[in-house]
Amino acid sequence: METEFQCGNCSECMAVDNSRKGHDIACPSCGAELTVPLQGSIQTGNVIEDHLIQDEIGHGAMGKVYLASHLLMNRQVAIKTISPKIRQDADSVEQFIQELQMGARLSHPNIVTVYTAGYVDGVYYISMQFIDGFDMNERIDKSGPMAESEALAVVAKVADAMSYAWNEYNMIHRDIKPENIRVSTRGDVMIMDFGLAKVRTDDSSNEEGLVIGTPDFMSPEQGEGRTDIDFRADMYSLGVVLLYLLTGRRPYIADNPFDVVAMHINRPLPAVKVLNADIKVSEATQALINKMASKDRDERFTSWEEVSEAVDRIIAGPQRKPKSGGKAGPKKSVRSNNSVKSIGKRRRRRRQSSSIGIIIGLVVILAVILGAVFASRI
Ligand SMILES: Nc1ncnc2c1ncn2[C@@H]1O[C@H](COP(=O)(O)OP(=O)(O)OP(=O)(O)O)[C@@H](O)[C@H]1O
Ligand SMILES: [Mg+2]
Fold first, then answer.
1. How far is the CA of 180 from the centre of ligand 1 (A)?
2. Fewer Cβ within 10 Å of end Cβ, the chain: N or C?
Protein backbone atom coordinates (compact mmCIF):
# COMPACT_ATOMS: atom_id res chain seq x y z
CA MET A 1 0.00 0.00 0.00
CA GLU A 2 1.15 3.49 -0.81
CA THR A 3 0.31 6.90 0.56
CA GLU A 4 -0.26 9.60 -2.02
CA PHE A 5 0.38 13.16 -1.06
CA GLN A 6 1.40 16.49 -2.46
CA CYS A 7 4.52 18.56 -1.93
CA GLY A 8 3.57 21.75 -0.11
CA ASN A 9 6.44 23.55 -1.87
CA CYS A 10 6.06 22.73 -5.58
CA SER A 11 2.64 20.92 -5.61
CA GLU A 12 4.18 17.76 -7.10
CA CYS A 13 2.01 14.69 -6.30
CA MET A 14 3.89 11.59 -5.19
CA ALA A 15 3.22 8.05 -3.97
CA VAL A 16 5.31 6.70 -1.12
CA ASP A 17 5.28 3.24 0.43
CA ASN A 18 3.23 3.14 3.63
CA SER A 19 6.30 1.92 5.55
CA ARG A 20 7.72 5.45 5.05
CA LYS A 21 4.80 7.10 6.93
CA GLY A 22 6.14 9.62 9.42
CA HIS A 23 9.62 9.59 7.79
CA ASP A 24 11.28 12.56 6.13
CA ILE A 25 11.86 12.34 2.39
CA ALA A 26 13.05 14.75 -0.28
CA CYS A 27 10.50 15.86 -2.88
CA PRO A 28 11.55 14.17 -6.17
CA SER A 29 10.68 17.33 -8.06
CA CYS A 30 11.98 20.31 -6.04
CA GLY A 31 14.07 18.55 -3.39
CA ALA A 32 12.18 20.15 -0.47
CA GLU A 33 12.29 18.11 2.73
CA LEU A 34 8.85 16.60 3.45
CA THR A 35 7.37 14.36 6.11
CA VAL A 36 5.19 11.54 4.80
CA PRO A 37 1.75 12.01 6.48
CA LEU A 38 1.44 9.77 9.51
CA GLN A 39 -2.13 8.95 10.49
CA GLY A 40 -4.86 8.37 7.95
CA SER A 41 -4.56 9.55 4.40
CA ILE A 42 -7.33 12.11 4.51
CA GLN A 43 -5.52 15.25 5.45
CA THR A 44 -4.47 18.45 3.74
CA GLY A 45 -2.01 17.90 0.92
CA ASN A 46 -2.89 14.22 0.34
CA VAL A 47 -4.36 12.79 -2.83
CA ILE A 48 -7.24 10.40 -2.15
CA GLU A 49 -8.58 8.52 -5.13
CA ASP A 50 -8.02 11.48 -7.47
CA HIS A 51 -9.06 14.09 -4.89
CA LEU A 52 -6.37 16.52 -3.79
CA ILE A 53 -7.28 17.53 -0.23
CA GLN A 54 -6.78 21.29 0.02
CA ASP A 55 -8.29 22.83 3.14
CA GLU A 56 -10.31 21.91 6.19
CA ILE A 57 -13.70 23.63 5.90
CA GLY A 58 -15.20 22.58 9.20
CA HIS A 59 -16.19 19.63 11.28
CA GLY A 60 -19.32 18.10 12.74
CA ALA A 61 -20.32 15.14 14.84
CA MET A 62 -19.40 12.66 12.09
CA GLY A 63 -15.97 13.94 11.17
CA LYS A 64 -14.20 16.66 9.22
CA VAL A 65 -15.17 18.37 5.98
CA TYR A 66 -12.45 19.34 3.49
CA LEU A 67 -12.30 21.39 0.35
CA ALA A 68 -10.68 19.22 -2.33
CA SER A 69 -10.00 19.35 -6.00
CA HIS A 70 -10.94 16.43 -8.24
CA LEU A 71 -7.87 16.15 -10.41
CA LEU A 72 -9.48 14.39 -13.39
CA MET A 73 -12.68 16.42 -13.47
CA ASN A 74 -10.86 19.61 -12.58
CA ARG A 75 -13.56 20.75 -10.19
CA GLN A 76 -13.77 21.68 -6.54
CA VAL A 77 -15.58 19.27 -4.26
CA ALA A 78 -16.29 18.94 -0.56
CA ILE A 79 -15.01 15.77 1.09
CA LYS A 80 -16.82 14.73 4.22
CA THR A 81 -15.12 12.11 6.36
CA ILE A 82 -16.98 9.80 8.67
CA SER A 83 -14.97 8.63 11.58
CA PRO A 84 -14.79 4.84 12.09
CA LYS A 85 -16.18 5.45 15.60
CA ILE A 86 -19.45 6.63 14.09
CA ARG A 87 -19.61 3.57 11.86
CA GLN A 88 -18.57 1.05 14.46
CA ASP A 89 -21.77 -1.01 14.04
CA ALA A 90 -21.58 -0.97 10.27
CA ASP A 91 -21.43 -4.35 8.59
CA SER A 92 -19.33 -3.38 5.63
CA VAL A 93 -18.17 -0.72 3.24
CA GLU A 94 -20.77 -2.06 0.77
CA GLN A 95 -23.53 -1.34 3.24
CA PHE A 96 -22.24 2.20 3.68
CA ILE A 97 -22.20 2.75 -0.08
CA GLN A 98 -25.68 1.23 -0.41
CA GLU A 99 -27.04 3.57 2.24
CA LEU A 100 -25.53 6.51 0.40
CA GLN A 101 -26.88 5.46 -2.97
CA MET A 102 -30.41 6.63 -2.17
CA GLY A 103 -29.16 10.12 -1.32
CA ALA A 104 -26.98 10.14 -4.42
CA ARG A 105 -30.05 9.62 -6.63
CA LEU A 106 -31.49 12.98 -5.62
CA SER A 107 -31.17 15.62 -8.27
CA HIS A 108 -32.66 18.95 -7.28
CA PRO A 109 -31.39 22.55 -7.52
CA ASN A 110 -31.68 22.94 -3.73
CA ILE A 111 -30.05 19.65 -2.72
CA VAL A 112 -26.27 19.21 -2.66
CA THR A 113 -25.22 16.60 -5.22
CA VAL A 114 -23.31 13.58 -3.95
CA TYR A 115 -20.58 12.49 -6.41
CA THR A 116 -18.82 9.47 -4.92
CA ALA A 117 -18.01 7.72 -1.69
CA GLY A 118 -15.18 5.47 -0.59
CA TYR A 119 -13.14 3.97 2.22
CA VAL A 120 -9.49 4.89 2.77
CA ASP A 121 -7.27 3.91 5.68
CA GLY A 122 -10.22 3.07 7.92
CA VAL A 123 -12.05 6.30 7.13
CA TYR A 124 -15.25 6.51 5.11
CA TYR A 125 -15.55 9.55 2.91
CA ILE A 126 -18.14 11.19 0.71
CA SER A 127 -17.33 13.53 -2.15
CA MET A 128 -20.01 16.09 -2.95
CA GLN A 129 -20.76 19.42 -4.55
CA PHE A 130 -18.83 22.19 -2.79
CA ILE A 131 -21.07 25.10 -1.79
CA ASP A 132 -19.05 28.26 -1.45
CA GLY A 133 -21.05 30.39 0.96
CA PHE A 134 -22.29 30.13 4.54
CA ASP A 135 -24.61 27.93 6.53
CA MET A 136 -27.63 29.33 8.37
CA ASN A 137 -25.86 29.08 11.70
CA GLU A 138 -22.94 31.18 10.43
CA ARG A 139 -25.42 33.62 8.87
CA ILE A 140 -27.23 34.21 12.17
CA ASP A 141 -23.98 34.41 14.15
CA LYS A 142 -22.63 37.01 11.75
CA SER A 143 -25.63 39.22 11.00
CA GLY A 144 -28.29 38.40 13.62
CA PRO A 145 -31.89 37.31 13.03
CA MET A 146 -33.29 37.36 9.50
CA ALA A 147 -36.06 39.55 8.19
CA GLU A 148 -39.34 37.67 7.90
CA SER A 149 -39.34 37.71 4.08
CA GLU A 150 -35.76 36.41 3.93
CA ALA A 151 -36.46 33.58 6.37
CA LEU A 152 -39.64 32.61 4.52
CA ALA A 153 -37.76 32.56 1.22
CA VAL A 154 -35.29 30.04 2.71
CA VAL A 155 -38.15 27.90 4.06
CA ALA A 156 -39.88 27.99 0.67
CA LYS A 157 -36.78 26.56 -1.07
CA VAL A 158 -36.24 23.89 1.57
CA ALA A 159 -39.93 22.88 1.40
CA ASP A 160 -39.65 22.53 -2.40
CA ALA A 161 -36.64 20.24 -2.06
CA MET A 162 -38.24 18.19 0.71
CA SER A 163 -41.39 17.80 -1.35
CA TYR A 164 -39.32 16.49 -4.28
CA ALA A 165 -37.42 13.98 -2.12
CA TRP A 166 -40.57 12.73 -0.40
CA ASN A 167 -42.81 12.55 -3.46
CA GLU A 168 -40.23 11.09 -5.84
CA TYR A 169 -38.25 8.81 -3.52
CA ASN A 170 -40.14 8.63 -0.23
CA MET A 171 -37.00 10.04 1.35
CA ILE A 172 -36.75 12.09 4.49
CA HIS A 173 -33.74 14.05 5.70
CA ARG A 174 -33.90 13.33 9.46
CA ASP A 175 -31.47 16.10 10.42
CA ILE A 176 -32.83 19.43 9.21
CA LYS A 177 -30.93 22.10 11.11
CA PRO A 178 -29.26 25.45 10.34
CA GLU A 179 -25.83 23.82 9.77
CA ASN A 180 -27.30 21.63 7.04
CA ILE A 181 -28.79 24.54 5.08
CA ARG A 182 -26.23 26.55 3.19
CA VAL A 183 -26.64 29.61 0.99
CA SER A 184 -24.14 29.91 -1.84
CA THR A 185 -22.47 33.16 -2.80
CA ARG A 186 -24.93 33.21 -5.75
CA GLY A 187 -27.84 33.09 -3.30
CA ASP A 188 -28.87 29.47 -3.89
CA VAL A 189 -30.32 27.72 -0.84
CA MET A 190 -28.81 24.22 -0.60
CA ILE A 191 -29.68 21.35 1.72
CA MET A 192 -26.74 19.23 2.80
CA ASP A 193 -26.38 15.74 4.25
CA PHE A 194 -29.60 14.38 2.75
CA GLY A 195 -30.03 10.83 3.98
CA LEU A 196 -26.75 10.95 5.86
CA ALA A 197 -28.38 10.70 9.27
CA LYS A 198 -29.38 7.19 8.24
CA VAL A 199 -25.80 6.35 7.44
CA ARG A 200 -24.76 7.39 10.91
CA THR A 201 -25.15 4.72 13.55
CA ASP A 202 -24.33 6.61 16.70
CA ASP A 203 -24.51 5.41 20.25
CA SER A 204 -27.51 7.48 21.30
CA SER A 205 -29.97 4.73 20.41
CA ASN A 206 -32.67 3.49 22.72
CA GLU A 207 -34.59 0.26 22.83
CA GLU A 208 -37.36 1.22 20.44
CA GLY A 209 -35.19 2.61 17.71
CA LEU A 210 -32.33 4.88 16.86
CA VAL A 211 -32.33 8.49 17.95
CA ILE A 212 -30.77 10.11 14.93
CA GLY A 213 -30.31 13.81 14.41
CA THR A 214 -29.49 16.91 16.40
CA PRO A 215 -31.62 17.46 19.53
CA ASP A 216 -31.97 21.23 19.04
CA PHE A 217 -34.24 20.78 16.03
CA MET A 218 -35.38 17.19 16.51
CA SER A 219 -39.03 16.21 16.27
CA PRO A 220 -40.75 14.70 19.32
CA GLU A 221 -41.30 11.42 17.47
CA GLN A 222 -37.58 11.10 16.66
CA GLY A 223 -36.80 11.92 20.26
CA GLU A 224 -39.14 9.14 21.36
CA GLY A 225 -37.20 6.79 19.11
CA ARG A 226 -40.20 5.93 16.96
CA THR A 227 -39.31 3.89 13.90
CA ASP A 228 -42.29 4.98 11.78
CA ILE A 229 -41.20 8.56 11.18
CA ASP A 230 -42.14 10.26 7.92
CA PHE A 231 -41.83 13.66 6.20
CA ARG A 232 -43.63 15.31 9.11
CA ALA A 233 -40.53 14.86 11.30
CA ASP A 234 -38.56 17.07 8.87
CA MET A 235 -41.49 19.50 8.81
CA TYR A 236 -41.25 19.90 12.58
CA SER A 237 -37.50 20.54 12.33
CA LEU A 238 -37.98 23.10 9.55
CA GLY A 239 -40.61 24.88 11.66
CA VAL A 240 -38.09 25.14 14.51
CA VAL A 241 -35.40 26.29 12.05
CA LEU A 242 -37.76 29.08 10.92
CA LEU A 243 -38.21 30.10 14.55
CA TYR A 244 -34.40 30.16 14.92
CA LEU A 245 -33.87 32.21 11.75
CA LEU A 246 -36.37 34.81 12.93
CA THR A 247 -35.17 35.06 16.54
CA GLY A 248 -31.54 33.92 16.46
CA ARG A 249 -32.39 31.61 19.38
CA ARG A 250 -32.85 27.89 19.81
CA PRO A 251 -36.14 27.15 21.59
CA TYR A 252 -34.86 24.82 24.29
CA ILE A 253 -31.63 25.15 26.23
CA ALA A 254 -30.54 22.49 28.70
CA ASP A 255 -27.35 21.11 30.20
CA ASN A 256 -27.49 17.90 28.24
CA PRO A 257 -28.99 16.78 24.93
CA PHE A 258 -31.39 14.33 26.57
CA ASP A 259 -33.13 17.17 28.41
CA VAL A 260 -33.43 19.07 25.12
CA VAL A 261 -35.07 15.99 23.57
CA ALA A 262 -37.48 15.79 26.53
CA MET A 263 -38.37 19.47 26.12
CA HIS A 264 -39.21 18.93 22.45
CA ILE A 265 -41.54 16.15 23.56
CA ASN A 266 -43.19 17.86 26.54
CA ARG A 267 -42.77 21.64 26.51
CA PRO A 268 -44.80 23.96 24.30
CA LEU A 269 -42.76 25.69 21.60
CA PRO A 270 -42.00 29.27 22.69
CA ALA A 271 -43.49 31.99 20.48
CA VAL A 272 -41.21 34.30 18.47
CA LYS A 273 -41.86 37.24 20.82
CA VAL A 274 -41.10 35.07 23.87
CA LEU A 275 -37.76 33.93 22.47
CA ASN A 276 -36.77 37.40 21.35
CA ALA A 277 -38.82 40.38 22.55
CA ASP A 278 -37.20 42.65 19.93
CA ILE A 279 -38.66 40.69 17.03
CA LYS A 280 -42.15 41.12 15.60
CA VAL A 281 -43.51 38.79 12.95
CA SER A 282 -46.90 38.54 11.31
CA GLU A 283 -49.57 36.40 12.94
CA ALA A 284 -49.58 34.29 9.79
CA THR A 285 -45.89 33.42 10.17
CA GLN A 286 -46.33 32.61 13.86
CA ALA A 287 -49.28 30.37 12.92
CA LEU A 288 -47.13 28.72 10.23
CA ILE A 289 -44.42 27.88 12.77
CA ASN A 290 -47.01 26.55 15.24
CA LYS A 291 -48.57 24.26 12.66
CA MET A 292 -45.30 23.00 11.16
CA ALA A 293 -43.86 22.33 14.62
CA SER A 294 -46.95 20.98 16.29
CA LYS A 295 -46.09 18.31 18.91
CA ASP A 296 -48.70 15.99 17.46
CA ARG A 297 -47.69 15.21 13.89
CA ASP A 298 -51.34 14.72 12.92
CA GLU A 299 -51.82 18.42 13.57
CA ARG A 300 -49.05 19.47 11.19
CA PHE A 301 -49.60 20.18 7.49
CA THR A 302 -50.53 17.01 5.65
CA SER A 303 -48.06 17.58 2.79
CA TRP A 304 -45.07 19.71 1.81
CA GLU A 305 -47.25 21.29 -0.87
CA GLU A 306 -49.50 22.64 1.87
CA VAL A 307 -46.46 24.19 3.55
CA SER A 308 -45.39 25.79 0.26
CA GLU A 309 -48.89 27.17 -0.31
CA ALA A 310 -49.01 28.62 3.21
CA VAL A 311 -45.57 30.23 2.73
CA ASP A 312 -46.65 31.57 -0.68
CA ARG A 313 -49.74 33.13 0.83
CA ILE A 314 -47.70 34.92 3.51
CA ILE A 315 -45.10 36.10 1.01
CA ALA A 316 -47.86 37.33 -1.30
CA GLY A 317 -49.31 39.39 1.55
CA PRO A 318 -52.91 40.21 2.33
CA GLN A 319 -55.29 40.23 -0.64
CA ARG A 320 -56.24 43.74 -1.74
CA LYS A 321 -59.93 44.66 -1.54
CA PRO A 322 -61.30 45.19 -5.06
CA LYS A 323 -61.79 48.88 -5.83
CA SER A 324 -64.79 49.83 -7.97
CA GLY A 325 -64.11 48.22 -11.33
CA GLY A 326 -60.66 47.10 -10.15
CA LYS A 327 -59.47 43.54 -9.72
CA ALA A 328 -58.57 41.86 -6.43
CA GLY A 329 -55.21 40.14 -6.35
CA PRO A 330 -52.03 39.52 -4.44
CA LYS A 331 -49.81 42.55 -3.79
CA LYS A 332 -46.61 40.78 -4.74
CA SER A 333 -45.52 37.15 -4.80
CA VAL A 334 -41.87 36.16 -4.64
CA ARG A 335 -42.51 32.55 -5.60
CA SER A 336 -45.16 33.21 -8.24
CA ASN A 337 -43.19 36.01 -9.86
CA ASN A 338 -42.73 34.13 -13.11
CA SER A 339 -46.37 33.25 -13.58
CA VAL A 340 -47.44 36.78 -12.65
CA LYS A 341 -45.02 38.09 -15.28
CA SER A 342 -46.21 35.73 -17.98
CA ILE A 343 -49.87 36.56 -17.33
CA GLY A 344 -48.91 40.24 -17.61
CA LYS A 345 -47.17 39.61 -20.90
CA ARG A 346 -50.13 37.66 -22.22
CA ARG A 347 -52.49 40.49 -21.27
CA ARG A 348 -50.20 43.07 -22.85
CA ARG A 349 -49.95 40.97 -25.98
CA ARG A 350 -53.73 40.63 -26.12
CA ARG A 351 -54.10 44.39 -25.66
CA GLN A 352 -51.47 45.03 -28.37
CA SER A 353 -53.16 42.70 -30.85
CA SER A 354 -56.59 44.32 -30.32
CA SER A 355 -55.06 47.80 -30.92
CA ILE A 356 -53.50 46.55 -34.16
CA GLY A 357 -56.93 45.20 -35.18
CA ILE A 358 -58.56 48.62 -34.58
CA ILE A 359 -55.85 50.41 -36.62
CA ILE A 360 -56.23 47.94 -39.52
CA GLY A 361 -60.02 48.40 -39.33
CA LEU A 362 -59.69 52.20 -39.49
CA VAL A 363 -57.28 51.98 -42.44
CA VAL A 364 -59.73 49.71 -44.31
CA ILE A 365 -62.69 52.07 -43.61
CA LEU A 366 -60.59 55.08 -44.72
CA ALA A 367 -59.57 53.24 -47.90
CA VAL A 368 -63.23 52.41 -48.68
CA ILE A 369 -64.32 56.07 -48.13
CA LEU A 370 -61.43 57.39 -50.21
CA GLY A 371 -62.20 54.79 -52.90
CA ALA A 372 -65.87 55.84 -52.95
CA VAL A 373 -65.00 59.57 -53.17
CA PHE A 374 -62.44 58.89 -55.91
CA ALA A 375 -64.91 56.72 -57.84
CA SER A 376 -67.71 59.36 -57.60
CA ARG A 377 -65.32 61.98 -59.08
CA ILE A 378 -64.56 59.74 -62.04
N1 LIG B 1 -20.80 20.42 0.55
C2 LIG B 1 -20.35 21.37 1.37
N3 LIG B 1 -19.88 22.53 0.84
C4 LIG B 1 -19.42 23.50 1.67
N5 LIG B 1 -19.42 23.41 3.02
C6 LIG B 1 -19.88 22.29 3.59
C7 LIG B 1 -20.36 21.21 2.80
N8 LIG B 1 -20.76 20.22 3.64
C9 LIG B 1 -20.55 20.68 4.89
N10 LIG B 1 -20.03 21.92 4.86
C11 LIG B 1 -19.72 22.76 6.02
O12 LIG B 1 -18.81 22.09 6.87
C13 LIG B 1 -19.17 22.31 8.23
C14 LIG B 1 -19.28 20.97 8.95
O15 LIG B 1 -20.34 20.23 8.36
P16 LIG B 1 -20.80 18.84 8.97
O17 LIG B 1 -21.93 18.34 8.14
O18 LIG B 1 -19.65 17.94 9.16
O19 LIG B 1 -21.29 19.22 10.43
P20 LIG B 1 -22.67 19.62 10.99
O21 LIG B 1 -23.71 19.67 9.90
O22 LIG B 1 -22.47 20.84 11.80
O23 LIG B 1 -22.98 18.44 11.99
P24 LIG B 1 -23.32 16.89 11.69
O25 LIG B 1 -22.07 16.17 11.83
O26 LIG B 1 -24.31 16.58 12.75
O27 LIG B 1 -23.90 16.83 10.30
C28 LIG B 1 -20.48 23.11 8.24
O29 LIG B 1 -20.18 24.48 8.41
C30 LIG B 1 -21.00 22.93 6.86
O31 LIG B 1 -21.75 24.07 6.44
MG1 LIG C 1 -23.95 18.67 8.15
1. 6
2. C
Enumerate residues lining ligand 1, CB below 6 A: 57-62, 65, 78, 80, 112, 128-131, 135, 179-180, 182, 192-193, 214
Contact 227, 169 (CB under 8 A): no
Q: What is the CATH number of the domain that holds 153?
A: 1.10.510.10
- Please say if 193 is a catalytic residue: no
C-alpha–C-alpha distance, residues 269 and 240, integer Å: 9
Taking a C-beta distance cutoff of 8 angstroms, is the pair 128, 66 a contact? no
SS3 assignment, position 87: coil
CA of 266 to the centre of ligand 1 (A): 30
What is the span of the domain harbouring residue 2?
1-37
N-terminal to C-terminal alpha carbon distance within the chain: 108
How far apart are the C-alpha atoms of 111 and 329, rounded to whole Å? Answer: 33
Is residue 173 domain-shared with residue 266, that is, in the same domain?
Answer: yes
Q: Do the Cβ atoms of 71 and 52 come closer than 8 Å?
A: yes
15-74: pLDDT as tens digits = 888 787 777 889 889 998 887 765 556 778 888 888 999 999 988 877 889 999 998 888
Q: Residues 220, 148: one domain?
A: yes
Q: pLDDT, tens digit, for every residue of 180-227?
A: 999 999 999 999 988 776 655 444 443 344 444 469 999 999 999 998
pTM of structure: 0.75
Cα–Cα distance for residue pair 223/62, rounded to 1 Å: 19
